[in-house]
Amino acid sequence: MPGAAPFFTIITATRNAAATLPRLLESLASQTCRDFELIIQDGASTDDTVAVAEVRRERLPALRIASEPDTGIADAWNKALPHIRGQWALFLGADDRLATPETLETSFAWINNALPSCRFAIGGVIYCDVLGSPAATPLYGNAAQVPETIHHTMIPHSATFHHTSLFLGHTFSTEYHFLSDWDFVWRTWAATDMGMDLPFPVTLMAKGGATSAVRNIIALRKEQFRLLKAHGRTLNAHTAFLVHGKALLIHICATILGIKRTACLLNTVYSIRGKTPIWE
Predict the structure, then answer these.
(1) Residue 201's closest CA among 246, 245, 135?
(2) How many Å apart are CA 4 and CA 57, to the nearest integer?
(3) Cβ contacts of residue 257 below 8 Å, gap of 6+?
(4) CA angle 131, 140, 224 (to 5 degrees)
(5) 91-138 residue pLDDT tens
(6) Whole-prediction pTM value?
(7) Residues 169-202: pLDDT tens digits?
(8) Domains of the chain and any CATH numbers
């Protein structure tokens, strides 16, 4: 693409996302900060995903679309990495949106004043219902803590800007179906001063992702333990028993009550405990 390199690169992996992609594209087209490019890495969609993006090309500062088969979201992200021109990259889902028209402008102001060592800038995520309406208060990460446990998502990936120097020699592992983003953070975050907090919501994220799906609970927990082992992290026997036991209990409830009722029950418990209800 001609022209000066942008400050931000937005990367979106898609696959038959024609129904949800317009919300993301409209939120990007309305940004007051125009110093960004969008890379859509499509997984050979059979619907109108590519056409939906092409229609909005003129309203975006820069758009690159590639459509080819991939093995999943990590593979799609990796295919996009060589084409990044920006200084900071943000990975958004096809059903995500930026929180406000000023999100990139505000993020630029904060990130542009970050320490030279900063490589991650972490904002907040607001989960939305199926209609796109905000359904919960923002969920924030904590840049002072590199993720240490599998119990909480300390780094909301869709609200985390990555300095693109991180991708010089590092890619996302395709060995993980759910947690390639966690693996990437753990491999590249070497010191606490590599991160900063952005004290505002960055992303409106649709509920119902793979990691919050009741049907995936057993597979997710297995992958979490595999990730911990790969990074030399361990849980004591008591914690491991509780984690496995909770996953098994959720699986049994889903078998007896059904996925929707189990998700409703989990969300009720989360709300009572003051946590964001994310289960689907």
Answers:
(1) 135
(2) 18
(3) 265
(4) 90
(5) 999 999 999 999 999 999 999 999 999 999 999 999 886 556 666 677
(6) 0.86
(7) 999 999 999 889 989 998 898 888 899 999 999 9
(8) 8-207 (3.90.550.10), 212-272 (no CATH)
